[in-house]
Amino acid sequence: MNIFRKKRRLRLGQVGNGPEQPSAEELAAFAREEELYALGNAAALDSFGLSSALMISRYRPIAKHLASIGKRYSMLHPDVLILLYYLACKSRGDILEIGPYIGGSTIALAEGVRDAGQERAFVTVEKGGRLEHPTLTSRDIVADLKQNLAHNRVADLVQLIVGEAVANETGEEVRRRLRPGSVELFVMDADGGVELALDFYRDLLADHCWVVIDDYFAATGPAFDKAARTKAQIDALGTTGELEGLAPFGWGTWFGRWHRPHFVRHP
Ligand SMILES: C[S@@+](CC[C@H](N)C(=O)[O-])C[C@H]1O[C@@H](n2cnc3c(N)ncnc32)[C@H](O)[C@@H]1O
């Protein structure tokens, strides 16, 4: 265990209230499971690999913890939170998220960053405002987000930028924190403007990076129209080879990879 990880765990141990930390025996058992299902490296996480990672993670203490985070702060399915955590653990580069709302997905990602034990940038972009929701209403999204990140002791791992995702000033703020080609995990759960967001942030993405986009599917409700637009854009980017779909999980969250198109210069 490197020093960054050890220090942070010690700190978490002092304050308590984090996810239950696995014992050395449990960590050894997790490593054996990963070996058994050939999940040794990030490249092994194809669609079967992602499903296997989800399957084995459901039995770990983190799954129970993320289910409780999900109930309090997220519109995403608990399986999606587990996979966000898992990918944040497995990836080594920076993370860019658009649309944290009050922090469910953000906390899952930040805990993955913390447990991976390697310092890197995690930037999340939220435009703020208020939102009526059957169970997760917020009168001030940014205030609630900040409070929830602090309450879950991950605020120091997340760089929050308040603004419209594709506004020039937001882009400048994001680029002050992220280098070109450094993002290995791009998570988008915002307004369905997938093509616009990719056009705007493409230079920051590492070739073959992970991409997670909600809502690829919604049977009914307010996300129905957004899902239709989102699916059409993802599928179109799939035909050009820029996006490669691996699997949808949860209630309709798309998981895949981004491949640098030939027309984009290497950073
Ligand atoms: C569906 S919620 C995100 C849910 C969250 N990921 C979770 O785990 O529950 C969408 C969020 O994206 C934000 N948003 C929507 N469009 C945006 C945009 N263009 N720029 C920045 N934030 C945006 C909304 O304010 C809202 O907080």
* CATH C-level class: Alpha Beta
Estimated radius of gyration? 18 Å
Number of beta strands: 7
Task: Provide the list of bound ligands, each named once.
Answer: S-adenosylmethionine
Helix fraction by DSSP (H/I, runs of at least 4): 40-55%
**General shape:** globular
Q: Give the amount of beta strand, in percent.
A: 15-25%
Characterization of this structure:
There is one protein chain. The chain has 267 residues and is an alpha/beta fold. The chain has a single domain, classed as Vaccinia Virus protein VP39 (Rossmann fold), CATH 3.40.50.150. Helix content is 46%, strand content 16%. The chain is built from 10 helices and 7 strands. Strands 3-2-1-4-5-7-6 form a 7-stranded mixed beta sheet, with helices on both faces. A hairpin with a 3-residue loop joins strand 6 and strand 7. Helix 4 (61-73) crosses helix 5 and helix 5 packs parallel to helix 6 (104-116). The protein starts with a helix and ends in a 9-residue tail after the last strand. The relative contact order is 0.12. Bound molecules: S-adenosylmethionine. The site of S-adenosylmethionine has 19 residues, from helix 6 and strand 2. S-adenosylmethionine binds at residues 74-76, 98-101, 104-105, 125-127, 129, 141, 164-165, 189-191.
